[in-house]
Design goal:
two-stranded antiparallel sheet, oxidoreductase, metal-binding, 9 strands, di-copper center containing domain from catechol oxidase, 3-stranded parallel beta sheet, 379 residues, binds copper (II) ion, globular, mainly alpha
């Protein structure tokens, strides 16, 4: 299928130059974790061993815990939207409020200096909300890309059972996935509606938005938040999994000793014919999960981004002298042009989910500031 769809890949291929030019901040020496380093000393209790939450590999969780997680997501979809329905008809419930909020901020929080920390806090907000709205206090799971790459449809994540994140879409042969003149992927094993597992029959509400908007820094189209209901689709793509999300790629990213290279290895390199690990993972799932604006509509988004955060966290742990490095500007593809971020740059917020404009410094460590979690296994 010619994915007019808004690809992370097209992005990866064509939108990075401004970011590449934005030099990473020099290392700040040994990570100065401690109350005085953070912007709001005393605002949060210290993250101690008895408080810390452990995020787990979805595959390693007991079936009942996996189901509790997906039950909570389905519960979130029964909670009313808090958004103005005249402005956001696509916000049909509280879950879709998250998806709408992500669309609203896409142009600031991708291909920008906010990418890693904004998404880290966004996942944290959703994790907290699952507890507050729906009583889920289990582990926040990550989807281990390389561990599942050789057997997507047999993995606990995608086997389609009631304990999975739902399976593949039904098979629809609509040709290769064309991302750009330089890059296409063979069609995956699905393409149609997801009809197995906890999200069978899920209705998405927002149509994909052209990637050109992001690259050029254009406003969202007027139709962005119109109600556009259709079934959730997936097209599981083993080619993308094995090629872009293998262990060699993972360790290359973990080993690199600068944040710019790390970003290129997760998001791709301009002019290249390769996806990075993060964009590759979105293309393992297919549309709408491969759409940079509206991907949150597929609940696999949360375990996918928990894995990205695990990768970032593990990189910080492996390179403590670089753990507070930042780079990038305040706008996607630096369009329109904007300043390089620093540790003290405030984020653009998270819509109504949190009106605070935390700085990058506030969100740079998973065991300080508002966070107190770690991953079961450091990558
Ligand atoms: Cu995003």
């Amino acid at each position: 299928m010619v994915n007019a769809i808004v690809s992370l890949a097209a992005l990866a291929l064509s939108a990075l130059p401004a970011l590449i030019e934005a030099a990473p901040a020099p290392g700040l020496g040994p990570a100065p974790w401690g109350p005085s380093f953070f912007g709001s000393p005393g605002k949060y209790p210290p993250c101690t061993e008895d408080r810390i939450k452990i995020r787990k590999d979805f595959d390693s969780m007991a079936p009942a815990e996996r189901k509790a997680f997906t039950d909570a997501i389905n519960c979130m979809m029964t909670k009313p939207s808090q958004l103005d329905q005249t402005l956001y008809p696509a916000a049909t419930n509280r879950y879709m409020d998250y998806a709408v909020t992500h669309v609203n901020l896409t142009q600031q929080v991708h291909l920008s200096g906010f990418f890693l920390t904004w998404h880290r806090y966004y996942g944290h907000l959703f994790e907290q909300d699952l507890a507050e709205q729906c009583g889920y206090t289990g582990a926040f799971p990550y989807w281990n890309w390389p561990a599942t790459a050789d057997n997507l449809r047999g993995s606990a994540v995608f086997d389609g059972s009631e304990y999975s994140m739902s399976g593949d879409g039904i098979y629809v042969d609509d040709g290769p996935v064309v991302l750009s003149p330089f890059l296409q992927l063979p069609h995956g094993s699905g393409g149609g509606c997801v009809n197995t597992g906890p999200f069978a029959g899920l209705q998405t509400t927002m149509a994909p938005i052209s990637i050109d908007n992001l690259i050029a820094g254009l406003p969202l189209p007027d139709t962005a938040f119109q109600l556009n209901q259709t079934c959730l689709t997936r097209d599981l793509n083993t080619y993308a999994a094995q090629r872009y999300c293998n262990y060699t790629a993972l360790y290359e990213a973990l080993d690199t000793d600068d944040l710019l290279t790390f970003d290129q290895l997760i998001n791709g390199v301009i002019g290249g014919a390769e996806l990075g690990l993060h964009s590759g993972a979105h293309f393992i799932v297919g549309s709408p999960a491969s759409s940079i604006f509206v991907s949150v509509q597929d609940p696999i988004w949360w375990p996918l981004h928990a894995m990205l955060d695990n990768l970032y966290t593990s990189w910080q742990l492996r390179h403590p002298d670089l753990a507070t490095a930042v780079y990038g500007t305040e706008t996607a593809n630096n369009a329109p042009p904007s300043a390089n971020v620093t540790l003290d740059t405030p984020h653009p917020g998270w819509g109504y989910f949190d009106p605070n404009h935390y700085t990058i410094r506030d969100l740079i460590s998973t065991t300080s500031g508002p966070f107190c979690y770690k991953y079961d296994v450091a990558l």
